[in-house]
Write a structure and sequence with these properties.
It is a single chain. The chain is built from two helices and two strands, in the order H-H-E-E. The protein is an alpha+beta fold. The chain has one domain. The protein has a two-stranded antiparallel sheet. A hairpin with a 5-residue loop joins strand 1 and strand 2. The longest helix has 13 residues. The protein is globular, with a radius of gyration of 12 Å. InterPro entries: HTH_HxlR (IPR002577), WH-like_DNA-bd_sf (IPR036388), WH_DNA-bd_sf (IPR036390). It comes from Lentzea indica.
Length: 57
């Protein structure tokens, strides 16, 4: 995931890039966000809210 968390983690200094990456991957797996990795150097990943949200209950 690389640099996806840098702009966010700069604003939230208490969140490590590793923890942010793990959380975003979990949210992707659970269907809350969409992650798109771009095949460029350096790696670039875009994360957005998923189109459909499911009731977690």
């Amino acid at each position: 995931m690389g640099r996806v968390g840098r702009p966010i983690s700069r604003k939230l200094e208490i969140v490590s890039e590793k923890m942010l990456t793990q959380t975003l991957r979990t949210l992707e797996r659970d269907g809350f966000v969409h992650r798109e990795a771009k095949p460029v150097i350096p790696p670039h990943v875009e994360v957005s809210q998923a189109q459909e949200r499911y009731d977690a209950s």
